[in-house]
User: Which sequence fits this backbone?
């Protein structure tokens, strides 16, 4: 039996992306072939428990912590309070991270979680600094929130391989691949890898094309999307428990 489930969840209408997210995660896990049997990827879809709704004052309402839609509604409410929803249609990723790590659902579903949204994200980095936007946000040994919003091209098509690079980067933060003090890392919105061929580097420009090109070249050569330093750190971490810390990918 696997010791850790990897749960992929998403807001409504994103089901077609689940196999691609699973493929991206599998490419990272292939770097730890000796431990691959310890993980099982599960598609939770637009998750909703049997108790997701409550009837109150003549209408059905979302019950706290019982559905993806409730978590997203909380992130929207936080964005509304901060003037981010009406102007930019952004969700507060930090609110999502907080709710997903503090609610009762994390006890019922104790695996690592990846939540996809098509909305733009903003929030705070691990030091509490504001992020005008972020592609994704992660909590070590817990979960990632990733957005497709900034990967839509001028023809309204998803830049899928770039998005998969983001998924791998954020999943690497779940694994704790770039912990503070690790060799060949630098501080930029959290510790990141210095290897420019590794998906765990940080791109302030917001353009993941070069990183994606390097990743695909490595994949075609039968190589991992993460570098040897990240692989070694991951091997150390697989038998450990972590103190959660937040990581964001990109800001402006």
Assistant:
């Amino acid at each position: 039996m696997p010791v850790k489930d990897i749960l992929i969840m998403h807001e409504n209408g994103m089901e077609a992306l689940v196999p691609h997210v699973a493929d991206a995660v599998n490419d990272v896990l292939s770097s730890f072939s000796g431990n691959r049997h310890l993980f099982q990827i599960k598609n939770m879809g637009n998750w909703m428990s049997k108790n997701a709704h409550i009837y109150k004052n003549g209408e059905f309402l979302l019950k706290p912590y019982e559905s993806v839609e409730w978590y997203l509604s909380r992130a929207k409410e936080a964005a509304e309070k901060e003037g981010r929803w009406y102007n930019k249609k952004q969700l507060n990723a930090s609110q999502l991270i907080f709710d997903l790590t503090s609610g009762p659902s994390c006890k019922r579903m104790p695996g690592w979680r990846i939540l996809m949204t098509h909305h733009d994200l903003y929030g705070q980095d691990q030091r509490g600094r504001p992020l005008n936007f972020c592609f994704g946000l992660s909590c070590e040994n817990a979960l990632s929130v990733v957005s497709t919003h900034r990967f839509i091209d001028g023809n309204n098509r998803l830049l899928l391989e770039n998005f998969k690079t983001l998924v791998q980067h954020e999943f690497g933060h779940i694994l704790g691949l770039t912990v503070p003090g690790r060799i060949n890392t630098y501080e930029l919105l959290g510790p990141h890898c210095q290897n420019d061929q590794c998906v765990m580097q940080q791109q302030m420009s917001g353009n993941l094309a070069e990183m994606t090109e390097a990743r695909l070249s490595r994949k075609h050569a039968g190589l991992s999307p993460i570098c040897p330093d990240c692989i070694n750190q991951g091997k150390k971490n697989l038998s450990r428990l972590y103190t959660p810390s937040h990581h964001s990918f990109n800001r402006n």
Remarks:
- The chain has one domain: 4-249.
- The mean pLDDT is 88.
